Structure formats: structure tokens, C-alpha cells
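Project standup — Tuesday

K.O.: blocked on the structure for the chain from last sprint. Re-posting the sequence here as requested.
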Amino acid sequence: MATFLYKLGRISFRRRHFVALIWVALLTLAGVGAASAPAAGNSSFSIPGTEAQKAFDLLEQRFPGTSADGATARVVFKAPSGEKMTDPGNKATVQETVKELADGSEVVRVTDPYQAKAVSKDGTVAYAQVSYKVSGMELEDSSRDALEDSAQDARKAGLTVEIGGDALQTVPHTGTTEIIGIAVAAVVLVITFGSLIAAGLPLLTALIGVGIGVSSITALASALDLGSTTSTLAMMIGLAVGIDYALFIVSRYRAELAEGRDREDAAGRAVGTAGSAVVFAGLTVVIALVGLSVVNIPMLTKMGVAAAGTVAIAVLIALTMIPALLGYAGRKVKPAGEKGKLLGRAKAQEKQDKPVKPNLGTRWASFVVRRPVAVLLLGVIGLGAAAVPATSLELGLPDDGSQPTSTTQRRAYDLLSEGFGPGFNGPLMVVVDAKASDDPKAAFTAVGDEIKGLEDVVTVTPPAPNKAGDTATITVIPDSKPSSVATEDLVHSIRGKGAGIKADSDANVLVTGQTAMNIDVSEKLNDALIPYLVLVVGLAFLLLIVVFRSILVPLKAALGFLLSVMAALGAVVAVFQWGWLADLMGVEQTGPVMSMMPIFMVGVVFGLAMDYEVFLVTRMREAYVHGEKAGQAVVTGFRHGARVVTAAAVIMMAVFAGFIGSSESMVKMIGFGLAIAVFFDAFVVRMAIVPAVLALLGRKAWWLPRWLDRALPNVDVEGEGLRSASGDQDKELVRA
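H.V.: unblocked you, prediction finished:
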């Protein structure tokens, strides 16, 4: 592989006009496609195989035209102090509002609070429910405007009016902190390279890669049913890995220049060595992201595949466009150790007359090699302490109750809880399929009676059959809030009763609704976590055996990853569930951690963690293969790689942290989780635990059974083939 990539790097350097033209053309093509593509709506949220999804599908068949998956809005009214919603003036205002809402072109129906008995017992709160033909993200702006205008008219009449539901759902924005993250990355690159030109190359190529990836997603969003979060995730990961991969290759290029090679050869060698590490690091990220498909949640699968495509683009750009741009930059990119005009050249001459002082990476690695046990224990205990909050992890999907108190959705949620009880915000829809029953009406009544006898039930509505009379819906209002354990237990209890009803009347009982869907999603994600871990870690373990030609090094890499991801989950629980530093992070409402967060973090963090593992340890492997002792190889790897890995980690943290400013709680949580995970993995696991373990293992770290050594393909990540081809071995023999 090193030889192939070496040739690719030289060709890209020499044919830079052609390479640059190809990437610019691809960017233009993707941009035109994105600009001309129809606007994408919200990705349809289906969970194949779950009871809630089966019930939704049944409703579409048996209740045609009801738009079971359409957007809903609850317009909640509260009477002024001392008045009731049943007072003639307030009642007239509400009925006028209902009439205005019903005129909307996308509205299916609007319930009148007084006919639907949707007035609280004390008479102070009432609500009208608006059902739409399309999902919240597909609603026309005119429909949202009409909804808000109607509410505003009622407010002018003296009522308190708030709007809940998903009809006001909009595309999330990330805020200015994303730009700050990119600015921090630029500063780190300038400090690392001491040159604006060298620092600008990784930023430029990363932005081009993300531009192609996100534009392609936007162009295909409508055809492939991709949601807005898909492009946000692709941008987040694409920026981070794009900058890092380019940083690795530019850094190696400068190191090759410092050894006296000409620029074309240095570019080829940088791609042949660091590029090999980039290829395998990128492969681990792609495996982790594509592996999300095992969860069998279409939305998560699409997010993973789209982000993996952006990572693949980042790898290709690093291997081809970086050497092409290095050809354009010429002498403006200096050899390692030689500063440009930005930081001054005066010190370079002074250093020629003085002994070279070991850099910080060398000094740190030397310390770890001397004190491996102490460093290992300190790192493991520290990460273990950070992981403690993860033991109280509570999972759920966000609803209006997790919105900031400043939003109308959250105020509507609170008003409904105040007037009707907390469970009113999470009604359960029970679907009774009595098509095979001899007496459907009796089956409907039996189901309702069974549910009334369960704990935590406040209200059970009479069965509402379809025109054929073979299927009915029953609405159940729990006593507890939607995200509570009691509501989850109630869902399981209703489903448990269904088995007995099936035996007695041949009627199937299914529980659905947003609350039941959230419960099913959480359980599905929990069940998929272990198989996903086995698949992703197993495939990456095999890949790393090929890269490092070792058993213990990949095993150590996987165990270190588990430590860092558990510590990161602990930090997420502490901030988003317990509320530690919530104000600093802009978390206005604490609550359960998003149910897809653990499996998502496992996938993304594993891929990113292997970036640093591959780049840092391949340098050690390279030194070991070239004859250094095991302990000295660790120090050599840090001398060449620690500065670059540190810069890459800081850049990745800055990019991820930039998404903490998002208005979408899911994006905010992912941004924080990935940023803290990179911190734990790069600075504690890869910079402390990894060298400590390798120092303790010594030569055993690189042990591989002979039969396996013969069976594995030789991918030559260390560039040994380049060394032989250049005659470096012959020169060493002459010196000897």
C-alpha cells in the first residue's frame, strides 16, 4: 500500500492542475445539485419490527385519510385570573380561533374544546388539537404562520395561549460557536506549523470535502428521505476528520523535507507513510458509522452512511488534493523545525550552535516509560471516576417537556400538566384489531375494561371504531409524565393484557403513540448495543491486526476505547441529566439522555479514537521495525507524533464543541459528548495509558504467531518498501 500511495502522492504533486480541477468540478457539481434539488422535509421516523410501528401501519390501512403520522398542534388556552374558560367571552374567543384554524389548506381537522370535553375540571385551561396532512418539517410556512397568528389574536382578547406539538418543528441552527470552533482550529494549525500557508491547507481541503459531502446530501435529501440532522452530523464529523487527516500528511511532508528530500519525493513519502495511516484510520471510522445499520432504525442508518461518505471524501482529498496544493505552495511550506516569517527565523540560526533540546513529546514519553505503572493506574482510576455517573444513566427521547422554558412548546406542556395532569402530555393510543373476532364490539369493550383496572391510568376514552367496525382506537391518559418509568411500566402492562385478550376473543391489542414509540426505540437501541459493539470492535480489531501485525496492540486499543467512551457517557449524564455545568453548556432543561446517544457515541468515538491510535502507534511500529528497542520506539513515536496528535485532538474538540451552540438538543448533546470523548481518548488513553502499556509489554507488544504472520497481507503501513526502494538500507550498510 505504501508504494501505491507514494506513487499517487507524486502524481498528484506533479499533475496538480488536473487534480485541483477535478475536486473543484466535483464541488461545483455538488453545489449545483444542492441548489436545484427540491427542499427536503423531515426524515420519516419509522422503527421496523416494533409494536408501535405495526400499530401505525395498521392505522394507515384501517383508517385511511386520517394521516396518523401527520403533524399535530395543541393550542392551549388559559383564562385570566378569576375567570374560567367556560365564561361566554372566553368561549367565543376560543370558538373563533378554532374556526380560523380549520381554514388552513393543510389542516385535516380541529377539535372544539367544548365539544371534545377538553376543558380542565377547574375550568381554567382548555385546548384545541389541530391535525395536519403532512409531518412537522413538511408544513408550509403559511400553515405555521396561520397557527401563530390565530394564537396571537386570542392573546389580544386577554387569554394566555401557548402552542405545543410538532407542528412548530423547524430546521435546527448551530449558532456562532460553530464558527468559533473553526477559528480555534485555525489558530492551532498556525501554532503547529508556524506558517499561514501550511496552516491553511488542512482548513481549505476540509472545507472542500465537507462542501462536497453536505451538498451531495442536500441534493439527495428529498429522493432518499434524509433529514436535516443528517447533514449536520456529516458536517460535524467531516470537518473534524478532514482537518486531522490533512494535518497528518502536511506534518509528515515537512518532516520529510527536514531530512533533505526534494519536494515531490517528500510529498510522495508523506502520502505513502502518513497516508497509509489515514486510510486505515478512515476505514475504522467508516466501519463504525456504516455499522449503525445493524440497529435497523432507518434514520440512524441514513445518518451513519451519509457521514461515512463524507469521511471517505475526506480521505481521498487528503491523499490527492493535499500533495497537489503542496505543489502549488512550493517553498512557502517550510521543513519541520524551520519557522516562517510569521514566527520569525532568527531563532533557527541560534539553535544551530546549541544542542537540540528534546521536545515535550519526547520528555513526556521518556517519563511514562520510566514510570509506566503509576501513569497507567492514574489514567485508569481517573477515567473510572469520570464514568461513575454513567451508572445512573436514564434513556429517553426528547419531547416538549425537555424544551427550554422560554419556548411556547414548553409553556404549553406545563399548562396541560397543570390543567389535566402530567400524563396528558403523553397519551397512549391503543389499537384493537378485531377483524378475526366473532364479536368486535365486545372485544373493544373488554380491552377498555381491562385497561381501566391497571395502575397509573387516569382516563380511558370509549372505543372509536372505523367504518368497517373491525378496528378501534382507545386513548389512555397515564397518571405520570411521558418519560417516567411508571408510564413505561403501563405500556408493558397493557401489552401484557393483550395476550389474554387474544386468547379470549381473537383480537390483537397494539399500543402506539409518541410515548410508546419512544419506549420502543429506547428498548431497540439497548438490545442492539452489544451486537453493534461486537461487530464494530471485531471488524476494527481485525483491521488493526493487519496494520500493526500484533495481537496485544489492537486489544489494548479496544480496551482503551471502552474506558474513554464510558467516561464520556458519565460526563454526558453529569451535564444533561444531573445538571452539572448546565448553565455553561446552555442546557436549560435537564432530563433523560437521548436514547440513541450511547450507541451513537460508541460508533463515532470508536472510529475517531482509532485515528490517534493508528497515527501514533504506526510511528512506534515504524521505529521498531527499523531496529529500535521497544521502549525507545515508544519515545520515537512520541517525538514525531505527539505534537501532531495533540494539535489534531484540540482541533477535533474545537469543531465538536462548536455544535454545543445548536438549538437542537440532540445536536447539542452529540457535540458535547464527542468533544469530551476526544479529550479523554486523546489525552488520557492515547497519550498516557497507551505508552504505559507498551512500555510494560516491551517486545511482547509486537508479538504475532508465525502462522498468522504468514496468512496476513503485508500492507506496509510503515513504508518499509519505500525505504528499500530508495536505497536507504544500502546507505546504512555502508555507514556500518
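K.O.: great, moving the ticket to review. The two ends are 30 Å apart (CA to CA). The mean pLDDT is 83.
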